[in-house]
Amino acid sequence: MKTKLYLLLILLGVAVWTACTKDEETEQIPVVKMNIENSPINGKVNETISFSAFNVNNKVYAQEWKLEGEVKSNTADYDFTPAAAGIYNIEYTATNSAGIFSYKYVINVGVPTVPSGPGSNSYVTKVFEFLPGPGQYTNKTLGSMEGAKSLEGQEGAVSLGAWGGFIVLGFDHTVINENDKNDLVIYGNAQFNWAEPGVVWVMQDANGNGKPDDTWYELKGSEFGKEGYIRNYEVTYTKPAKGGNVSWRDNKGNTGVVEISGTNVQAFPAWITGNEYTLKGSLLPLTGIKPGTLITSFPFAWGYADNAVGGDQFDIANAVDAEGKPVSLSGIDFIKIQTGIQANLGILGELSTEIMGVADLSLVK
Q: Which three-class secondary structure state does DSSP give residue 233?
């Protein structure tokens, strides 16, 4: 009896093992068909691309959609809506005990552009932000939002005050970066022996929302990288108790004042609610300023606003990133101009960049 029972158990064990082996043999690597089978894919900002994976052999498997290595979906479907221009990597995987099916996509999302047309204005058409440094014209028409808005759609006049004072402007179209050509012109009031150079920054509307909230790129000029040129420079201006000179300190341990004389008893921006504010940007060297009975401020070789008689021209191809490395921009939608030198010019007051107009060279007639 014991022998029969033992044989029966052996036979049952063989049967179980055989059944398991057959189940494993029927397990297969997932066979999946993708609804989109081409890559790379050209996409557009804020336009959805719908991906789907179809189970061909009806096997059970786990699924994942990853965007730049981060899991975004565990179903057969994934909708991808790029929020900004760039190159995106998406990977789909289907996994079971038999193996893995994988499919990879590369999505190229171009920078949104607004083409120019017969009705496009060659000049900037909108002021997005204006914050001058302290100065002899600050709080007066020339150094106010009224002065800033005089540049909208035409030539006007605005003063940016002492170092770091800036204005942010936008075009009604994308200014195209043309090969081997200057693309922008900025008009100032420079004379042959009197320049007040301003640093120029540009921005693409990479997220297509019509606002200057993407990345700023400096347009390098002739002083880029030279002695006295400092990137990531900061100055904090302090409001004087009773008007008059405005003291400042920088992030390099230096201090000074913006001297105010005559009727300009309050050159600290009146709309600043606190007792101080900080401006950031690139500092240009003092090499062009020559002291004497008649102080002179000679222009730099090229690449700055309010620097040359008749206006200054700029090539978008000179854009550099936060590390000072060249970047390739197909075009720009916004421009920022900022006083680049911190200098006390005696009875002439502070050095302050003045802007009379900003235009797309390709539309200037």
A: strand
Q: Using CA atoms, how far apart are residues 147 and 51, in angstroms rounded to an integer?
A: 51
Q: What is the DSSP letter of 98?
A: T
Helix intervals (H) in 80-167: 145-149
Under a CB-based contact definition with an 8 Å cutoff, are residues 92 and 53 in contact?
Answer: yes
Q: How far is CA 345 from CA 157, 196, 236, 296, in A?
A: 21, 11, 20, 9
Residue 243's pLDDT band (cuts 50, 70, 90) = confident
Q: Measure the CA dihedral 164/170/174/179, to 10°.
A: -30
Confidence band for 90, pLDDT divided at 50, 70 and 90: very high
Q: Which amino acid is at 81?
A: T
**Token duo for residue 73:** 């979906």
Residue whose C-alpha is closest to residue 338's, from 203, 194, 165: 165
Per-residue pLDDT for 13 more than 50? no
Counted residue by residue, the chain has a size of 365
DSSP state of 317: G
Render pLDDT for 66-80 as a digit per residue (tens, 0 to 9).
999 999 999 999 999
219 forms beta bridges with 319
In which band, very low, low, confident or very high, does the pLDDT at 266 lie, cut at 50, 70 and 90? low
